[in-house]
Design goal:
- It is built from 33 helices and eight strands.
- The protein is an alpha+beta fold.
- Among the domains are: 93 residues; 149 residues, Cyclophilin-like (Cyclophilin, Beta Barrel), CATH 2.40.100.
- It is globular.
Length: 678
């Protein structure tokens, strides 16, 4: 680097150049001599000081944690530093910046990670300066990788361009390359993208020697970043897609092709759908094809409706609901006469109503009767919910859906009815259907939504709140007296009903034209250290389901409070009989809700424990939440890599046996028992 040139640059350009070479020459401070000091991180849950630090983290006690940042014990400094990654306190940033100079690599890396978790844009320059381009150790290390990723969580467009144009990293510099890829990806999640970033990620994918982890983030960047221009790289990307063997990377590439909608990607997607064996890749290909002109993708997707893998068939059916065509309505109707499970039949029923011309009244009424018969004969509440969703594809069915809400007792079905009314209100056909009479219909639906608010049921209240704060529905002029909402809010029990509380409170704030910051429950569930003493480093949970056995290794050291809570519930047989209430093909299966609708909890909450472990593959078990520190009993298992969840959802274990069972689970399947194996 030309130092005279640097001296004449403006501050912003200096930082860009510094990022581009990442201080490979001018940062001269070195790691202090560590030969005479303790540098090993040894986490023992029986150590009283470790317990004290983790209790402080659990209580979000920032001041209490500061003391341990100065401990002579590197393990204690490490844990105190990592605590701030979960607490996410801006107040602690100055102290964390000092920890970037800690003599122990893992502590420095933890500090960089924690600073990235806070995401304060004002500290980007300090992170850049902290990158160790000259070190007594190899600069290809976890600390520098975490610095790069943290810049991705805090930096701006100029930083992204500088990050993307670094050319000094060798293909063997796995940490640096991964940090670079993660940084560009994290920028994209913040809607900061550049041509340079896209080019770098394509280069990563195109190089056969690029480490797998780096390719994974590159592929997910293409899948997640908004408004990417891939036309110049289309030929290279189709070649990469065609030769790629790893399903994790291929499925992300398929998603990116669908978002881009470039015609050059269409044939490779169709060809891959025929040849691919991994159902997860097929699901993403089907979703991607759904973004292309209907008659160019229809014949490729149609066979998937009868696929023996229900994830594939369900995904295909959803495409026809969303992207069907009026000429094919008779074709959709035929799927009501063949043997198909409700997961396929119900959405194809919905496709008929969604794409039949608005004023083909007799046809729509007749087919709605068929759907109602399906609804009546369906035993599963989730199947019933799916048929209600199908009915909601025709705005004229608002009366029958309102009646279902009033008559049904099952909360899952009642919530589905409210969601159906929301679908009708959002339908582009709503105003066309009712013309000048839309106000009367909207008022009737509002009455049902108000019943949901005053029902006292957290699921109904949350669902109605989401609909009433939808800007496109313009409820502000309709709801001037919000007393009924405020009375309902006051009756909610915290922390058990925190999700509903925040939904309703934010709805009230929206209708009043005010801002709302989600409420976090007060600390209410201390860590059970006696129970943790019974959990070993290799402890396993054996989950017996209606589809088979799943064994999960528990991550006690990275999520002790979460693991303790999980084991406590296992010991109480809490999960026996619980259903998998949420299944999203090639995303997650979710369970642990006492109500079976996702709105259930227990009268306590636990804190998020956000470690450096990433959702970089399948089989991770994470805590479901309605925002950090609102977790209780619900958890999920991933079908594939989901790195957009990193840093926000506690990972407390991973499947070590039974992923085939995870992939078989469908909505409504049950947990028979969970056994804790020490």
């Amino acid at each position: 680097m030309d130092f005279q040139l640097i001296s004449t640059m403006t501050k912003n350009i200096v930082f860009s150049l510094v990022l581009a070479t990442f201080l490979s020459v001018w940062f001269t401070s070195c790691v202090p001599d560590t030969k005479t000091m303790d540098t090993e991180i040894k986490i023992s849950m029986s150590d009283p000081e470790v317990q004290k630090i983790l209790d402080l983290q659990d209580k979000s006690d920032v001041k209490g944690l500061y003391v341990h940042l100065r401990s002579e014990n590197p393990t204690h400094r490490y844990l105190a530093t990592m605590a701030f990654a979960s607490v996410k306190s801006e107040e602690a940033q100055d102290s964390l910046i000092k920890m970037l100079k800690d003599p122990v690599m893992q502590v420095r890396a933890a500090a960089a990670f924690a600073l990235g978790q806070v995401g304060d844009t004002k500290i980007t320059d300090k992170l850049i300066v902290a990158f160790r381009g000259k070190d007594t150790l190899d600069i290809d290390n976890i600390y520098n990788a975490n610095i790069l990723e943290a810049v991705g969580k805090t930096g701006g467009l100029n930083d992204l361009k500088a990050l993307s144009t670094v050319k000094t990293y060798r293909i063997t510099d796995t940490f640096l390359l991964l940090g670079q890829a993660k940084a560009i990806y994290r920028m994209a999640l913040r809607n900061i993208v550049s041509d340079e970033g896209t080019s770098k990620m394509v280069d990563f994918l195109n190089n056969a020697t690029t480490p797998y982890e780096v390719k994974l983030y590159a592929a997910h960047y293409l899948a997640r970043a908004k408004d990417l221009k891939l036309n110049l790289a289309a030929i290279r990307l189709t070649d990469i897609f065609t030769r790629e063997k790893n399903p994790e990377i291929k499925m992300a590439l398929a998603t990116s092709f669908g978002k881009n909608k470039d015609s050059l990607f269409l044939e490779p997607l169709k060809t891959a759908l025929l040849k691919e064996n991994d159902y997860r890749v097929k699901c993403n290909i089907i979703r991607a094809l759904g973004n292309y002109p209907y008659f160019k993708m229809r014949d490729a997707i149609l066979p998937s409706l009868l696929d023996s893998n229900l994830h594939i068939a369900t995904t295909a059916a959803q495409v026809f609901v969303k992207n069907g065509f009026i000429e094919d309505v008779p074709l959709y109707a035929k799927y009501d006469t063949v043997t198909t499970p409700w997961q396929v039949r119900a959405p194809m029923n919905g496709a008929v109503l969604a794409h039949t011309a608005l004023y083909f009244t007799k046809s729509k009424i007749a087919f709605s009767e068929r759907i109602k018969r399906n609804l009546k004969s369906e035993s599963s509440p989730y199947g019933k919910a799916a048929y209600i969703n199908a009915l909601s594809q025709d705005p004229f069915n608002y009366i029958v859906i309102s009646q279902i809400y009033a008559q049904e007792k099952d909360q899952i079905v009642k919530i589905a009815a409210l969601e159906g009314l929301g679908n009708i209100l959002k339908s582009p056909q709503f105003y066309k259907a009712f013309g000048n009479g839309y106000g009367k219909v909207k008022a009737e639906i509002l009455g049902t939504l108000a019943s949901g608010i005053t029902s006292g049921d957290p699921g109904q209240m949350a669902t109605s709140s989401v609909i009433l704060k939808e800007p496109v529905m313009a409820w502000k002029e309709w709801l001037k007296d919000l007393t009924f909402m405020k009375d309902a809010l006051a009756k909610l029990k915290l922390p058990k009903e925190i999700e509903t509380y925040n939904e309703l409170a934010s709805c009230i704030a929206y209708l009043e034209g005010a801002d709302y910051k989600a409420k976090t429950p007060e600390h209410n569930h201390p860590i059970d250290w006696t129970l943790i003493s019974t959990i070993g480093d290799s402890s396993v949970a054996a989950i017996k389901t209606s589809k088979g056995l799943i064994r999960v290794k528990l991550y006690k050291n990275s999520a002790p409070a979460t693991v303790a809570n999980f084991v406590d519930l296992i010991n109480k047989k809490y999960y026996s009989g619980k259903v998998f209430h949420r299944v999203v093909p090639n995303f997650v299966i979710q369970t642990g809700c006492p109500r079976g609708d996702g709105f259930g909890s227990e009268p306590y909450s636990i804190r998020s424990e956000l470690s450096q472990i990433s959702y970089d593959g399948s089989g991770y078990i994470g805590m479901a939440s309605a925002g950090n520190h609102t977790e209780s009993t619900q958890w999920f298992i991933t079908h594939s890599a989901t790195p957009h969840l990193d840093g926000n959802y506690t990972i407390f274990g991973r499947v070590i046996e039974g992923m085939d069972v995870v992939h078989k689970i469908q909505q409504g399947d049950k947990i028979n028992d969970v056994i804790f194996v020490k």
